[in-house]
TrEMBL record:
Highest taxon of the lineage: Bacteria
An example Gene Ontology molecular-function term: DNA binding
GO biological process, one term: positive regulation of DNA-templated DNA replication initiation
Alphabetized SUPFAM superfamilies for the sequence: DNA polymerase III chi subunit
Name of the featured protein: DNA polymerase III chi subunit, HolC
Length: 174
């Protein structure tokens, strides 16, 4: 609560379009080799793009991953993402004492310091989600991942947050 005004957490689910792998996802990227599912490769690339956009806006980001393997794949992808627009980042527990603008982790405790944006790549809504003003989540375009995303949507709704969706097939990112 700031100055007597309660700030409600905003959750934005990006509905991924049908898979049309970009050149980046097709390449021998860590994401492509760590996860052969093209829908997830696209989602990871979008997560990196959104982290980069938040960094440009001077927002601190926590990327929450399902496990250590996914966290390392996202870390490697960010090292290779857009050479002209480096995104300072580190895995949780590594990097400078003051932290870097983008932190990547996978435990149930969340970020080491206060951050504005949570990008969730895990199968569950993390228990610390309401500590963020803005949450970004994804609905991959396949039946298995849609079912998991529906459950996360219910979990967020149970937390009393404001939920929105954006269909990237009809409303792509700028």
């Amino acid at each position: 609560m700031k100055q007597g005004i309660e700030i409600m957490t905003q959750v934005l689910f990006y509905l991924m379009p049908p898979v049309a792998l970009t050149a980046k996802a097709k390449a021998d990227s860590p994401v492509a080799t760590a996860n052969a599912n093209p829908a997830l490769c696209e989602m990871y690339l979008l997560a990196c793009q959104l982290a980069q956009q938040a960094f440009v806006k001077q927002q601190w980001v926590y990327i929450h991953c399902q496990d250590k393997q996914q966290a390392h794949a996202i870390d490697e992808l960010l090292w290779q993402f857009e050479p002209s627009a480096f995104v300072p980042h580190n895995l949780k527990g590594e990097g400078p004492m003051t932290g870097s603008p983008v932190e990547i982790g996978f435990d149930r405790l969340g970020a080491n310091k206060s951050r504005q944006v949570l990008i969730n790549l895990a199968d569950q809504a993390p228990p610390f989600a309401v500590n963020f003003g803005h949450i970004i989540d994804f609905v991959a375009n396949d039946d298995q991942h849609k079912a998991v995303a529906r459950e996360r949507y219910r979990q967020y709704r149970g937390l009393g947050v404001n939920l929105q969706t954006q269909d990237l097939a009809t409303h792509p990112l700028n």
